[in-house]
Design a protein that fits this description.
Blueprint (H helix, E strand, L loop, with lengths): L7 H21 L14 H30 L21 H15 L11 H18 L3 H30 L7 H32 L14 H4 L5
Length: 232
């Protein structure tokens, strides 16, 4: 497997969580260590490790999808859907809500009369169109980095959650600190996931608002130069 052929998102959100999960299993279940060599990892063992990590990373991503649904559910859904509540601005200001509505109608000609009251299913289609517009006509390196870091923290949180559940049944007497370390790290990565999810959704909308009303007009400076938000 050539890591250079994988996107940043695949490396961050799939390979790394999968690798952490495999490494955690080796600590929890020492009997699995001979699969990768008892005295260090050889070149062949490293290749096997990456293949298994990539495969498990996709399964962990599925667990991450479930985890993010649970995490965002008390908040009313993913941050990208919060703009459907203009009366309670949480992601954008009231003025930015109005500007977003005008911009969507101007660039996409969808005839929206208001953002409030739109169902999540319907808004998902509008948001996908907004994001595709930004990716095609705006500046996206910052957005891709934030999305990759969101996937990374979501994957790590999901991997640690599975390891924590495994440790609860395994009860590793030889490593009494293991469950505690997993629980602390799980909370940390979950908080980081929420932070990047919030900033990414806001950044998408800010980048879209900087686009001209007409598609053939030059765009404004990148959102990263306007918002002042860091990636950390």
């Amino acid at each position: 497997m050539n890591l250079k052929e994988l996107s940043f998102y695949e490396q961050a959100a799939v390979i790394i969580p999968g690798s952490v999960f495999v490494f955690g299993l080796l600590l929890l279940l020492p009997e699995l260590r001979p699969l990768f060599a008892e005295k260090g990892i050889t070149i062949g063992g490293l290749g096997l490790f990456l293949v298994i990590a990539y495969a498990l990373g996709h399964l962990i991503a599925t667990a991450g999808n479930i985890l993010e649904t649970v995490i965002w559910w008390p908040c009313g859904g993913m941050p990208s859907t919060w703009v459907r509540e203009p009366g309670k601005p949480r992601l954008l200001t009231a003025g930015q809500h109005e500007a977003l509505l005008k911009k969507i109608n101007a660039r996409h000609d969808v005839g929206l009369t208001a953002l409030q009251g739109i169902s999540k299913t319907e808004w998902r289609g509008h948001f996908d169109q907004v994001y595709c517009d930004v990716r095609k006509n705006g500046s996206t390196p910052r957005l891709e980095t934030m999305l990759g870091n969101y996937g990374l923290n979501r994957g790590l949180a999901a991997a640690l959650l599975i390891l924590l559940i495994t440790a609860a049944f395994q009860r590793p007497a030889h490593e009494p600190w293991y469950p505690i370390a997993l629980a602390v790290a799980l909370v940390g990565y979950t908080l980081r996931m929420a932070r990047f999810g919030l900033y990414w959704a806001r950044e998408v909308y800010l980048a879209f608002l900087l686009l001209p009303d007409q598609i053939n007009q030059p765009a404004a400076p990148p959102a990263s130069a306007q918002s002042g938000k860091s990636l950390s």
